[in-house]
Specification:
Blueprint: E1 2-5, E2 16-19, E3 29-39, H1 41-47, E4 64-71, E5 83-86, E6 96-100, E7 104-106, H2 113-118, H3 120-133, E8 141-144, H4 150-161, E9 166-171, H5 177-183, E10 187-190, H6 196-203, E11 209-214, H7 219-224, E12 228-236, E13 258-261, H8 264-270, H9 275-288, E14 295-300, H10 304-312, E15 319-323
Parallel strand pairs: 8-9, 8-11, 9-10, 11-12, 12-13, 14-15
Antiparallel strand pairs: 1-2, 3-4, 3-6, 3-15, 4-5, 5-7
Helix pairs in contact: 3-4, 3-9
């Protein structure tokens, strides 16, 4: 089968599409013919050899949508021919992947493969951040950084579905303001146009945001405390800036504010059962049409290097997909 394999760390040029052996399955696993897989920022980090990268050589990719080709002897929930999304045992940039039954989920009949492929990482992550970690309450104000990206556009929609009263998005360029607004943000703020914290405070009559989703870190994290409501929850789930943010204890205890952390990789590895309820909600939202996946661009599997360049250019909006022709 064809797969994109990294034999060295570095620029997008290290992504090579080659022929590899078909994977085998254990008793609790399923073999899936991939129709499409998504490109996530974590894939970029793994390509550079940063934290949690696999041992060389390895196939990148975290999620995929496809059709079950074979099931292990202990699998009870699935059968050959079912359409599923999955978080594979190894990478997803391949024609076939193997996934544990517990990390595989049936796609509703009225959800197409592109939508399904775009949803797993971003929608599962966004739901966990809002519903389970931040525990957003009806009427609250939610501030979402990097609001034009895959997690951002999804989190905007889910915040509304979970009852948020006001959703504010921040974006890195004026061109991306429309993307956040299109996703449903009540307000979109461009970092290029000044201090976002001042703007958030103005929009909330000085109260600040009750929930803040931060995947950027560094100065953005620190500045977020300047527009952080009492009893607020800031959820830190990434560091795309490559910088480290510092917090003072006196910023938190007297105001009853909380800084919380979430890692998709840790949750998948340590507590995968927690994703079952998340999957039920997300797939129901998709099937009903209440959750829309923003697909920015599609590339063939063989164009993985080009897809990575596009994501790294910071021009991408929504999800970037790699499609597979079997």
């Amino acid at each position: 089968m064809k797969a994109v394999v990294l034999t060295e760390f570095g620029s997008p040029d290290v992504l090579k599409c080659v022929n590899v052996d078909m994977p085998s399955i254990a008793g609790n696993e399923v073999l899936i013919r991939v129709v499409a897989t998504s490109v996530n920022f974590a894939d970029i980090k793994s390509r550079y050899g940063k934290k949690d990268s696999g041992k060389l050589p390895f196939i990148p990719g975290l999620d995929a949508a496809g059709v079950i080709e074979a099931v292990g002897s202990d699998v009870q929930k699935f059968k050959v021919g079912q359409r599923v999304i999955a978080f594979p045992k190894t990478g997803s940039y391949a024609e076939y992947i193997v996934a544990d039954e517990v990390l595989t989920f049936a796609i509703p009949d009225n959800v197409d493969f592109d939508t399904a492929a775009a949803c797993p990482i971003v929608s599962f992550t966004a739901y966990k951040l809002l519903a389970d970690v931040a525990r957003v309450e009806p009427g609250e104000t939610v501030l979402i950084h990097a609001a034009a990206g895959g997690v951002g556009t999804t989190a905007i929609q889910l915040a509304k579905l979970l009852g948020a009263g006001c959703v504010i998005g921040t974006v890195g360029s004026e061109a991306k303001v429309a993307i956040a607004v299109e996703a449903g943000a009540d307000h979109a703020i461009c970092y290029e146009n000044g201090d976002f914290a001042e703007r958030v405070n103005a929009l909330t009559n000085g109260r600040g945001a009750d929930v803040i989703l931060d995947s950027i870190s560094g100065r953005v994290s620190e500045q977020s405390l300047e527009c952080f409501a009492m009893y607020g929850r800031l959820v830190h789930f990434g560091n795309s800036s490559g910088e480290i943010g510092d917090f003072q204890t006196n910023h938190l205890h007297s105001s009853c504010r909380s800084v919380l952390g979430f890692s998709w990789g840790t949750t998948r590895r340590e507590r995968p059962h927690l994703l079952h309820t998340t999957a039920e909600h997300i797939l129901r939202y998709l099937a009903s049409g209440r959750l829309k996946m923003k697909i920015g661009k599609q590339f063939a599997l063989e164009q993985a290097a080009e897809a990575h360049r596009w994501v790294e250019s910071r021009q991408s909006v929504g999800k970037v997909l790699l499609t597979v022709e079997n």
